[in-house]
């Protein structure tokens, strides 16, 4: 039985799905490297970039939902008080939490390490599910958690307990990013089932952006030197549109052609993209031990993404 007949999707559609989810993963990885340039080379602040990124992308998603699905679909998550509260919590602790902690980790360290630490989230979800159900995880899940822990140790210490290969603040923010990504993944299930991903994620981005905006995150704006303004604003546009809006839409569209397990597995190309782009453009070198740690984390992600 070929792939097309197995999924009920024509082969051309599956190829399209593979291309779209891989493109999304690459854009996500590249956006981390672009953000590192903005933070460490152009003087941008993580809170400013997060606010602009989520605010613009969120408004576009909500307006797009209103145009293509109707105003009722766009406003759906706001109608019922309980769901509106859920959306607010998701926007603040999920959307804002994961994006700010990730960018803070990038600003303090580098995009490669920040992305790999964020990908500890699947292992954290396994532990959460086991604790909630009061059941031991399976052997494959235990192996994945072990690989994730070993990979983290190798990545941040280089194999030496007494030394960190990246600033401890970057490690803390990276681990916070993994925790908030786990929350981001688990919490909004009811909202997604009721209102769909574009409206739910769009409003969550708007809510998440409103909090730092009201706190003054947009002031002062970046003071970009005249000779590099086009690089800085070009990278900003890439992070906002390709690293957020386009990648999100590509990922969602790929679900029409591929199974969730396949998309999750292919999305693990994101940390690979982040590591490769950081090495090529920023000369970030994880070293042999760090590379082994990265391989352990990726292996854990692949184990957890494979269908049972």
From TrEMBL:
Q: Which family does it belong to?
A: Belongs to the EamA transporter family.
**What Pfam families does the entry give?**
EamA
Transmembrane stretches, start-end: 18-39, 51-75, 87-105, 111-130, 142-161, 167-187, 199-218, 230-252, 264-282, 288-305
An example GO CC term for this entry is: membrane
Q: According to Swiss-Prot or TrEMBL, what is its membrane topology? A: Multi-pass membrane protein
Domain of life, per lineage: Bacteria
The record ties this protein, via InterPro entries, to: AA-Vitamin_Transporters (IPR050638), EamA_dom (IPR000620), EmrE-like (IPR037185)
Does the keyword section mention Transmembrane helix?
yes
Ranges where the EamA domain occurs: 16-156, 170-305
Q: Where in the cell is it found?
A: Endomembrane system
Under which name does UniProt file this protein?
Answer: EamA domain-containing protein
UniProt KW keywords: Membrane, Transmembrane, Transmembrane helix
Look up and give the organism this protein is from. Answer: Kyrpidia tusciae (strain DSM 2912 / NBRC 15312 / T2)
């Amino acid at each position: 039985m070929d792939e097309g007949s197995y999924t009920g999707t024509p082969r051309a559609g599956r190829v399209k799905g593979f291309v779209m989810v891989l493109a999304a993963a690459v854009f996500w990885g590249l956006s981390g490297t672009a953000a590192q340039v903005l933070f460490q080379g152009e003087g941008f602040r993580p809170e400013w970039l997060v606010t602009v990124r989520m605010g613009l992308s969120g408004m576009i998603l909500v307006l797009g939902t209103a145009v293509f699905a109707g105003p009722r679909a766009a406003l759906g998550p706001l109608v019922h008080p309980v769901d509106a509260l859920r959306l607010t919590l998701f926007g603040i602790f999920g959307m804002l939490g994961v994006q700010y902690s990730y960018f803070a980790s990038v600003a303090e360290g580098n995009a490669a390490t920040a992305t790999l630490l964020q990908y500890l989230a699947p292992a954290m979800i396994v532990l959460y599910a086991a604790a909630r159900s009061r059941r031991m995880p399976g052997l494959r899940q235990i192996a994945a958690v072990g690989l994730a822990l070993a990979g983290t140790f190798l990545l941040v210490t280089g194999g030496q307990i007494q030394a960190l290969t990246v600033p401890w603040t970057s490690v803390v923010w990276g681990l916070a990013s993994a925790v908030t990504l786990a929350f981001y993944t688990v919490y909004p299930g009811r909202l997604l089932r009721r209102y769909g991903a574009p409206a739910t994620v769009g409003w969550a981005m708007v809510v998440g952006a409103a909090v730092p905006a009201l706190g003054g995150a947009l002031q002062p704006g970046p003071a970009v030197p005249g000779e590099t303004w086009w690089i800085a604003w070009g990278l900003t546009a890439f992070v906002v549109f390709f690293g957020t809006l386009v990648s999100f839409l590509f990922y969602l569209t790929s679900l029409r052609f591929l199974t969730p397990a396949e998309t999750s597995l292919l999305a693990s190309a994101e940390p690979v993209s982040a590591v490769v782009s950081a090495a090529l453009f920023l000369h970030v070198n994880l070293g042999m031990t760090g590379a082994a740690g990265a391989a352990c984390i990726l292996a854990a992600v692949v184990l957890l993404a494979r269908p049972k």
